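Sample entry (315 residues):
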Amino acid sequence: MKSDMHHFMRDVREKPDIAPLRDIVEKITYAEETTQELLEDHPLDKYLRRDRIPHIWCSGCGIGNVLISYVTALEEMKADIKKQVVVSGIGCTGRIPGYLNMDTFHTTHGRAIPFATGMKLANPELTVSVISGDGDLFAIGGNHFLHAARRNITMMVLCVNNFNYGMTGGQLGPTTLLDDISATSPFGNYEPPFNIPYLAAASGAVYVARWTTIHLRRLIKSITRALTKKGFSFIEVLAPCPTNYGKMNKKGTALDIARYYQQKSVIRDFCDPMLADLSRSDELVIGEFVDIEKPCFQEIQERIYKEATKNGIHV
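Predicted structure, serialized as tokens:
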């Protein structure tokens, strides 16, 4: 097809009887060349595997916004790609590592955090990030989340919360809101959802924030903050799933959902994360809720080992 188009454009240039098309062809050629230059020179290209693009996400999905926010944060930090590791589990968000041009791990369902913990402890020089979905992190992976936060392992965990298991058809998940429809709650959800910023804070996270997929500058700033903190950092990103969850609950198009985020979001920095419960308010409470300092797992471990060595114990 591409070869046929090139032959057509060559014929248009060479034959005077079709001169009226010449200007159009020249504009097409210029647009192609300009697009190619932009693709070749884009400052974020070095973070992406261009051979894997275009992506597989549905039209209107917010995961692409999260991906671009993450790599933009790396660019603004001038981060060393060789020291970045991204881990994910299974699900729509779990596809993010496949598009990143760095060390990444697409792990088994719910086990992203244990993999990430092992990498951080084996090589503390790495900056380890877990980017996965609400089902992967808080259903099958919920136990691992609690204990990584409790131990205060230095890593960033970013949860893309689209309120359902999007990849497998829109089933009920641990963040699905009360009364909402899903493939496995056709009459409405009667299981109270997690307030995951509150859960993260209560479990011991040193940094906790929540944004939506339209608050990208604030999200980029939060990612930068989380990547530079010692200890366990957590960011929730509310994201649309117009194909499944949005359609079942008559949320409209992705643009309608973005407009909803704009109208309903209220930034309440450093409020009690308990107030961020989405099922108990008509507002979407977003912001930075926790930003504290305390010894991380590795620092406590090192102190304990040094004390044991002083007492003549071989560690």
